[in-house]
Amino acid sequence: MKADVITLDGGVAGSVELDEALFGLEPRADILHRVVRWQRARAQAGTHKVKTRSEVSYSTKKIYRQKGTGGARHGSRKAPIFRKGGVYKGPTPRSHEHDLTKKFRALGLRHALSAKAKAGALVILESAESEGKTAALAKQVKNLGWKRALVIDGAAVNEGFARAAANIEGLDVLPSMGANVYDILRRDTLVLTRAAVEALEARLK
Fold first, then answer.
1. Domain count, the chain
2. Residue 197 · residue 179 · CB < 8 Å
3. CA 144, CA 111: separation in Å to the nearest integer?
4. Is the Cβ–Cβ distance between 191 and 150 less than 8 Å?
5. Please, which residues have CB within 8 angstroms of residue 79's CB and are 6 or more apart in sequence?
């Protein structure tokens, strides 16, 4: 499939042939959902923690005698039944990560690219280069109508462009190796440079 290539100034810079295996699939929500869940689970800190009865601070003395009180038998104020006692089977630090095969992750990325192409939210850029001036880039982005966009460049992001984009709200910049399903789907517009298209095709073929 062919796609028009534009410049940051909005001019036409020819066209590019997009691989149907990457940009022409019928997007499947179940595949995208599984990959996004895998990504978010890996990002989860898992540092939640409560104190068990062996960790709360209280006397170990038996709180009252065993018999004759008319109440239930208790030996420790640390028991979960009491206020300020230990928590029974509460959360402890752990990893939320689960396995997902490399092939499936690559398939998810293909479907994410195809989803943007099908929705008409894919833009091919000749090159993402800037002198590093935020005001100039912000004006170009506004003229192009990008409100929430992800720009994916080649192997390395142009330093000036990255610096200029850092202070523009809603504009994210990634190198081609950083391309991932979650970031692609959470932005309204996906912008790929020519170098990014070549790099992604080489990576996902």
1. 2
2. no
3. 25
4. yes
5. 53, 85, 86
Tell me the per-residue pLDDT of 37-50, one tens digit each, with 9 for 90 and over: 999 999 999 999 99
In angstroms, the CA 181 to CA 157 distance is 19
pTM of the model: 0.83
Same domain, 26 and 70: no
- All residues at 6 or more sequence positions from 87 whose CB lies less than 8 Å from its CB, including other chains: 50, 51, 52, 80
pLDDT at 205 over 90: no
Query: What gap in Å lies between CA 15 and CA 181, rounded to an integer?
Result: 25
**Count of alpha carbons within 13 angstroms of residue 87, beta-carbon side:** 7
Full residue range of the structural domain in which residue 85 is found: 50-90
Spatial separation of the C-alpha atoms in residues 196 and 192, rounded to whole Å:
6
